[in-house]
Design a protein that fits this description.
It is built from 16 helices and 13 strands. Helices cover 43% and strands 14% of the residues. Helix 9 links the parallel strand 6 and strand 7. It is α/β, with parallel strands linked by helices and 443 residues long. The protein binds pyridoxal-5'-phosphate. The site of pyridoxal-5'-phosphate has 14 residues, from helix 6.
Length: 443
Amino acid sequence: MSAEGKPDTEQRKHLLRQLLEQRGAGGAPAAEAGPGAAARVEKLEDAREVDAFHARMRHLAGLGLSDPCFHSLEGPAAGTVVIGGRTLADFSGYNYLGLAADPRVKRAAQDAIEQYGTSASASRLASGQRPVHAELEQEIASFLGVEDALVLTAGYATNVTILGHVLGPRDLVIHDELAHNSILLGCQLSHARRLPFAHNDLDALDDLLRRYRGDVEKALIVVEGAYSMDGDFPDLPRLLAIRRKHGAAVFVDEAHSLGVMGPTGRGIGEHFAVDRREVDLWMGTLSKTLSSVGGYVAGPGKLLRYLKYTAPGFIFSAGMPPASAAAALAALRLLRAEPWRVAKLAANCALFLEEARAAGLDTALSGSTAVVPVVVHDSVRCLRLAARLFEGGINVFPMTYPAVAEDQARLRFFISSEHTMEQLRGAVSTVARLLGELRATAA
Ligand SMILES: Cc1ncc(COP(=O)(O)O)c(C=O)c1O
């Protein structure tokens, strides 16, 4: 305890950890009760995980930390954002190429609403689609240089349903340990044998395939084009050589690499100039660079036709609203027509990273992508830093335990082509100053 009778920093951290550990990081209760030992719960709201969550929120409020979630944005987030009447530099959204507020994208969505109404109203397979759905799929396929594409209503649902569908109990899926939650859920849904490998450790991937490939029908390697926790990416050419050696299929999630990597924003495939056909499915989201909502998978026509007629999350779900498809299509056409946006984003990312490193900030593994973490190594300090930055006009979201290990608590800066050099430099110097102050106070 401190002199004032309040818990000191170490005790507070311990308390926080205890509260958080009442649930596992994956959302499941950390410990299963034995047979007959479970206390009966009749209402979902009385479940112990619900109570643990509320205890945690009360605890955070008790530390004087404001809730960084669910800010009410009073306009688009494009470099800056207005919250509570104040304009802040925004580093928490994925509007990588600044297209989400572009008048041409907005116009396309408005025109689609006028023409087709607000909803697709049913599954495209069963009740038909609007021309804009097919146009978007053709445009995605031609942009990536593959035969066909399929769009679904969310990036998250795309991973869950496609991975859940293309794999089965006789198969093996090997994924990077930092794979997005939607990838993990899709793999679990498939009932395939699931083996994670250490982040970007392709020797480990090679080894797992050597040991387990022989036992299964299909083996699928799942990686991301750019990882949103560290802003790094896999060595795709080497991964494809491993794929060839073992006869494995490959799935690449380009949520954070489309529009970001490669000279014209065609993602990690363009960055490494790989043969597009070597990856079975290129997956991406429409919610980030493409300024809409939804997800896609793109690849060979034979596979895509099969998915269009059989993928459950597509055939049993209403189609994407035509306005969302039109917005994504307009954004994709702008990405094609205005490659300077990709170059501007790359320059912004390089500047931010260089300044952050020069200021002595821990930017982990970040390199050549639009995600730059600043590792704070302490959840409470990270939350305090985010709150101070918010007060100082910078909106950036803290990632704390249990989303990351306690010593990996971090702020994640998402860079946009819309950021000015002053905003980027200002953000770095403010973070460095406030972090220094917080450390000094703790010391
Ligand atoms: C790697 C990855 N895949 C999939 C998704 C889900 O995409 P969406 O938010 O468009 O549903 C995300 C979301 O951030 C992601 O980071």
